[in-house]
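As the next step, I selected for study one protein, both as residues and as discrete backbone shape codes, as given directly below:
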Amino acid sequence: MTTGADIIGQALAQAGCTRAFGIPGGEVLALMEGLRAAGLSFHLTKHETAAGFMAEGFWHATGAPGVLVATIGPGVANAVNVVANAHQDRVPLIFLTGCVDRADEETYTHQIFDHQAVLRPIVKGSFRAERGALGPMLDKALALALSGQPGPVHIDVPISVAEAQTDERPARVPQLPRLGVDPEGLTRLRAALERAERPIAIAGLDAVNEGAGPALAAFCEAQKIPLLTTYKGKGLMDEDHPLCLGGHGLSPKSDGLMMPLIGQADLILLLGYDPIEMRLGWRDPWHDGQEVFEVAPVARDHGMHWTTETLVAPLGPVLEALMDAPQPARWELGAPAAARDALRAAFAHRPAFGPGAVFETLREAMPPETVITLDSGAHRILASQMWRAPGPRQVLQSTALCTMACALPIAAGFKMGAPQTPVVAILGDGGLEMGLGELATLREHGLPVILCVLVDESLTLIEMKQRAGQRPNLGVDFTGSDFPALAQALGGHGVWVDDADTLRQEATQAMARPQFTLLACRIGPRAYDGTF
């Protein structure tokens, strides 16, 4: 006879899930067994937040929705951060939690709080599993997680529902709604494109999640339209292509070069562009003389900017329909090329060994297909500007919620899903210490991730904001750790790095090593001043 946990596992397996991540508790033991019986392997981490980020990394590598498992009470509370991140960073995460039966809640209070009330503001939907309705509930949950802008869906599973036998059938493979293309809106967009002399395109996370990179690159090339992306959109077009102007949205230096160019455009095309990644400089950035057309998977309600018209439609078919639009002379004075050259010059590294030299050396040493993950901090801004990605999902980071300690577990999850791809996690010393236990997770799963740690003994981005506001130094500096020794103690290889030659040599050797490698790059204090 089949149990409720079996039905849940079978539904996830039919949706393409093959792995689950989390930390066990007594309330999820039957649920974990149901996942195992359906073919989903379970992977233990040291913290629920790391488990969620590993699930995200595995999704980036394989396309399979992430599965996070947490037990009642503290397990759920620990996972709030990564669930909120999945909501803002558009990650399809199935969050399975254990709970006691409702009758028990009336007479038993240990570890009990309302999981659904806590999670509803940060998930696309929250469900409580009930006997007799598991199939329809899972249909709805999976479709919700994967449709439109993907995101997290929570399923609270009472112990009795997981353990009880049932004759229910598993859920169907989720049928996602198909967007159509409004012919009249498309006609207006085509007319605007045909008369535009200085069009510019901005693309982001929605284009990545649609897999629209090839169509977007072909469209920009055919129509001679320069492309800017968000940081999550890096690689939608090969960043070495002359029309690609790289990722933006967080660096005042890059915005200072791109905003004047955007201001010269007569047509702005927002193509799968979600401004949740952007900062204040991107709020209401267009002027009255411009036309702004957007193609998006959902109606927008962010209020960040206005548009002339928004087409709620799949991006690929719209671009295909516009590919052959007649075009006038485009950008005759060469302003996009000049902006691209100025951008490259602005982010060229200084001669001394510092963060710019670290990122440039790593890019030269690592193969083109290398995937990097970036933790939150000053290094993320500079690396996002300097690292050139030939394809999408090659620069992974928390760009909307900007959660620290995400780079290591995202890298671990990606490496688990794509073992042949070189993976480098770039993080600060503060971010590494926040999630230090996950070095043991790398060891346990035999994941040869390369960790590049920028060591300056400070939460530098916050320290820079303190100085900019003429505030005293407070709560941002800390004493250093012996990171190479920690790496060795936790089953990896660690080394101090003080120059580009050592970094190049160690990065090359790390690619052949069976265990993780930690490259502790000593950059010194205030190394990011003036860099971004």
Observations:
- The chain is about 40% helix and 15% strand.
